[in-house]
């Protein structure tokens, strides 16, 4: 994800200009994870989002993101579960990212789209509190997990620690990321109000807004604080960690991996580390670039409230939100493109699902759960021709597989 968000999602606050003299400043913020068009009025014809052509484009954009995100992230989780060779510490963290992105794709984006197009909250009180919190939770999980991956690789590579993080420790860290993220996102559920908003006599709509107990600036303070904790600080930590990792990998192989009969194995491991680090750095870059326009726009809104008076404010906001949400399906594409292990596993799943037998269809070569063997029937059973079939072999299943450590993917 990542948070994003995502994030897949955001924690910033959008302020609403007062509709009348009875405006309550304590109810002046709406969380943009569920963007609201209330501040411009449903009946304003100049609102570009009310144009049919714009709505069609938004429906296509959000639908594409949802479908690609659900399919891609589900596939990542499945292959990590299915194939034992993918059950490394780094891949468990990657699965955690996929779960967070799935949360955004299934629980948040469909409702965001409907709310954007209709301009009214029609999902009731419970979801008013639940959905913004869920998206905030997911983007925090994504950013914290990206930090954990970077720091774990920094520990292993920079300090030559080949000892794997134990799986129970890994699962404990994952649980900790969810607990910490739940705490950081809790204000989205605590300081929230579901109520009615009268646009004109006889016309009232339901809205889902934040309501802070103190000054109206409390929402802005929280917004900027989350911008720092959710974007700038994590990216600074990650950039520092990967800069040191890249410096270490660029010039030499570690002493533990050189000399004697192990030089070939050490060289291969060094190559895998560099390739994996490239993939993980690309993940971070995609996350940062996807969210940068949205965060910059939100920061401009927090600093200068006149931005809200722009005719195309809602349209710009929605475009930046769509760009940010692209990060929820980008990672599976990166895995398939940049990592031979994931690519082989994805191909094996597709060939298994299509019932193809023979060439390249033996899942036992990448060690699925249950160890289906050639000639044993079911997916991957090639009968007598199975022994002649070209196996799909993961990179970690060659002669160096015994040397896998915490930095391999």
TrEMBL record:
Gene Ontology terms: biological process: adenylate cyclase-inhibiting G protein-coupled receptor signaling pathway
Molecular function as annotated in GO: neuropeptide Y receptor activity
InterPro entries: GPCR_Rhodpsn, GPCR_Rhodpsn_7TM, NPY2_rcpt, NPY_rcpt
Keyword Cell membrane: yes
Protein's cellular compartments: Cell membrane
GO cellular component terms listed in the entry, alphabetical order: cilium; plasma membrane
Membrane protein topology class: Multi-pass membrane protein
Recorded family membership: Belongs to the G-protein coupled receptor 1 family.
Name assigned to this protein: Neuropeptide Y receptor type 2
Species: Amphiprion ocellaris (Clown anemonefish)
Source taxonomy: Eukaryota, Metazoa, Chordata, Craniata, Vertebrata
């Amino acid at each position: 994800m990542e948070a994003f968000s995502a994030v897949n999602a955001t924690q910033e606050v959008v302020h609403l200009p007062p509709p009348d003299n009875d405006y309550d400043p304590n109810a002046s913020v709406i969380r943009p994870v569920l963007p609201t068009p209330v501040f411009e009025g449903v009946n304003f014809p100049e609102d570009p989002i009310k144009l049919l052509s714009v709505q069609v484009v938004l429906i296509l954009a959000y639908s594409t993101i949802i479908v690609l995100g659900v399919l891609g992230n589900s596939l990542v989780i499945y292959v990590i579960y299915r194939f034992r060779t993918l059950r490394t510490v780094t891949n468990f963290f990657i699965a955690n990212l996929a779960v967070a992105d799935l949360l955004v794709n299934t629980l948040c984006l469909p409702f965001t789209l409907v709310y954007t197009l209709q301009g009214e909250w029609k999902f009731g009180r419970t979801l008013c509190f639940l959905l913004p919190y869920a998206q905030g939770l997911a983007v925090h999980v994504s950013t914290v997990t990206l930090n954990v991956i970077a720091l774990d690789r920094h520990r292993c590579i920079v300090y030559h620690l080949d000892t794997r993080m134990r799986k129970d420790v890994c699962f404990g860290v994952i649980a900790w990321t969810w607990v910490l993220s739940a705490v950081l996102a809790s204000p989205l559920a605590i300081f929230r109000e579901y109520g009615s908003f009268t646009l004109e006599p006889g016309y009232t709509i339901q809205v889902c807004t934040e309501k802070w107990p103190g000054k109206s600036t409390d929402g802005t303070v929280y917004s900027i604080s989350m911008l720092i904790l959710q974007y700038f600080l994590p990216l600074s930590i990650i950039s520092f960690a990967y800069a040191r990792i890249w410096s270490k990998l660029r010039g030499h192989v570690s002493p533990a991996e050189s000399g004697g009969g192990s030089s070939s194995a050490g060289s291969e491991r060094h190559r895998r580390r560099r390739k994996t680090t490239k993939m993980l750095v690309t993940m971070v870059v995609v996350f940062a670039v996807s969210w940068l326009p949205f965060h910059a726009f939100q920061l401009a809104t927090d600093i200068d409230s006149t931005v809200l008076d722009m005719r195309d404010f809602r349209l710009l906001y929605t475009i930046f939100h769509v760009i940010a949400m692209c990060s929820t399906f980008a990672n599976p594409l990166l895995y398939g493109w940049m990592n031979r292990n994931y690519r082989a596993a994805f191909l094996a799943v597709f060939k298994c699902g299509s019932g193809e037998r023979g060439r390249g269809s033996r899942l036992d070569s990448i060690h699925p759960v249950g160890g289906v063997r050639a000639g044993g029937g079911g997916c991957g059973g090639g009968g007598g021709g199975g022994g002649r079939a070209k196996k799909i072999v993961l990179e970690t299943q060659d002669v160096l597989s015994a040397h896998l450590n915490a930095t391999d993917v």
